[in-house]
Specification:
Layout lengths: L4 H17 L4 H16 L4 H16 L2 H18 L2 H12 L6 H17 L2 H18 L4 H17 L4 H10 L3 H29 L12 H6 L5 H16 L4 H15 L8 H35 L1 H11 L4 H18 L2 H18 L4 H17 L5 H9 L5 H24 L2 H10 L2
């Protein structure tokens, strides 16, 4: 072992950030830095480094946690092609018609519902933008409020289970995917509620943001409920199967993908062409994700032998720094990282470094997983990168990025409030996993 292992680890982290900024594929950057770093820490023992490359892909491919990823991605692709998002949007806007900014509030509610059957931030954001933005612009909504509500609604796709980033975190942190799914439900509901409250406050402060819309009768609201049946059915089968123990997470994902495929028959989209398109998109997405998982695993092995994460944890605990101060500092780091990189590089880069620190401070591993997802939500909104902002701008090119950035700023504050709440009251995260696993 090299006596300069810690220094090599620091150089490796810097090199990884530089390579990502240079435009290298995330998985390749992780793999390259991890491979070279591993060899250098063992005094340039290339045989050992190649040994890691040889064993990691097969180990990850044989993991049940990894198998869940393509199944949930496929379920989301089928759900999108089944047109379930339209029913969610109609129900959300009708039931919230008496709330200021009802269309924006309905967009957030629909984003939460679609996130429960999709698991993807980008897919949820793009779907809500396509459905909700024309309706809000037609009604005379301010573009800042419209785009901000779509952007925050999109982030709910990764907080409300099933969630692909949760699965990736579970793989990296060696924890239960099912427990993470259970832990994400209450924070997801809380985040959606806080976002709707933010919209109401914005509309109260500036009534011009959202013109008054026609208030719906109870009869009109009730008529929208049949549109929720496919969503409730799919979510109930997937999450209900996990919570009751009828299915494992992998089995629930497989059943959910099959049911979502059958639901494509409702809008008469169940054709060989649409199935092939969904399978092709799933293959493309999972190929990218699996390569990232392999790279992250090699990079994690490199950091593990340097013992840099544990050294950092010992340094912080030895300095007797208040653990809540550490959480604030880590949150600020995530805010900064979110300004310069997408969420996947963030989770792959930071989890191996911060997880030992968090555990040394007495925080729960499952709690940290939900915290990480909320931090990723910050990254999805924070300029100048803000992936959701670019998605909205790509779909609606006549709305400038500056307008979209102004629209998401209040919701960045909303995410900070949510992080503060789960930090002050961790039971929001841990309650359901504790109760359901007794």
């Amino acid at each position: 072992m090299s006596p300069y292992a810690t220094e090599i680890a620091i150089i490796g982290v810097i090199a990884l950030i530089v390579l990502i900024f240079a435009g290298m594929n995330i998985g390749m950057a992780l793999l390259t830095v991890g491979f070279i770093g591993y060899a250098s820490c063992l005094n340039w023992n290339w045989k050992a480094a190649f040994g890691v490359l040889r064993t990691v892909p097969s180990t990850q491919a044989g993991s049940y946690s990894t198998l869940v990823v393509p199944l949930f991605v496929l379920m989301g692709n089928f759900a999108y092609r089944a047109g379930l998002s339209s029913g969610l949007y109609q129900t959300g806007t009708k039931w919230l018609s008496r709330v200021p900014g009802s269309l924006a509030c309905g967009t957030v509610a629909a984003g939460a519902g679609f996130g429960a059957i999709c698991g993807s931030n980008t897919a949820t954001c793009a779907t809500m933008c396509t459905i909700a933005l024309p309706e809000m612009r037609k009604a005379g909504y301010n573009d800042q409020l419209s785009t901000g509500s779509i952007a925050i609604g999109g982030t709910l796709g990764i907080l409300i289970p099933p969630s692909t980033p949760m699965i990736l975190y579970a793989i990296m942190a060696s924890c239960s995917v099912g427990s993470l799914f259970e832990a994400g439900i209450l924070p997801g509901i809380m985040m959606a509620t806080l976002s709707i409250i933010t919209i109401v406050i914005l509309c109260k402060i500036n009534p011009d943001f959202a013109p008054s819309t026609q208030k719906c009768t109870w009869n009109e609201r009730i008529k929208t409920l049949p549109g929720l049946i496919p969503v409730v059915l799919l979510f109930g089968i997937v999450m209900g199967g996990i919570f009751t123990g009828w299915f494992s997470v992998t089995q629930s994902a497989a059943v959910g993908a099959f049911v979502a495929m059958l639901l494509m028959a409702l809008p008469k989209n169940l054709t060989i062409r649409t199935i092939i398109d969904a399978l092709r998109e799933c293959t493309r997405t999972f190929s990218m994700t699996f390569f990232i998982i392999i790279g992250a695993s090699v990079f994690g092995n490199f950091l593990a032998i340097t013992k840099m994460p544990m050294s950092l944890a010992n340094l912080i605990t030895g300095a007797n720094i208040n653990r809540y101060v550490v959480i604030v500092l880590i949150t600020l780091i995530y805010l900064f990282l979110g300004m310069i990189m997408d969420e996947l590089p963030m989770i792959m880069l930071t989890v191996p470094i911060f997880l030992p620190v968090i555990q040394a401070l007495g925080f729960d591993k499952i709690w940290f997983g939900i915290y990480i997802i909320m931090a990723m939500e910050l990254g999805a909104l924070s300029p100048p990168v803000g992936l959701n902002c670019f998605i909205i701008n790509g779909i609606q090119k006549d709305i400038s990025l500056a307008t979209i950035y102004k629209g998401v700023l209040p919701f960045i504050l909303t995410i900070f409030v949510a992080i503060a709440l789960i930090t002050a009251f961790p039971i929001i995260v841990t309650y359901l996993p504790t109760v359901l696993n007794q």
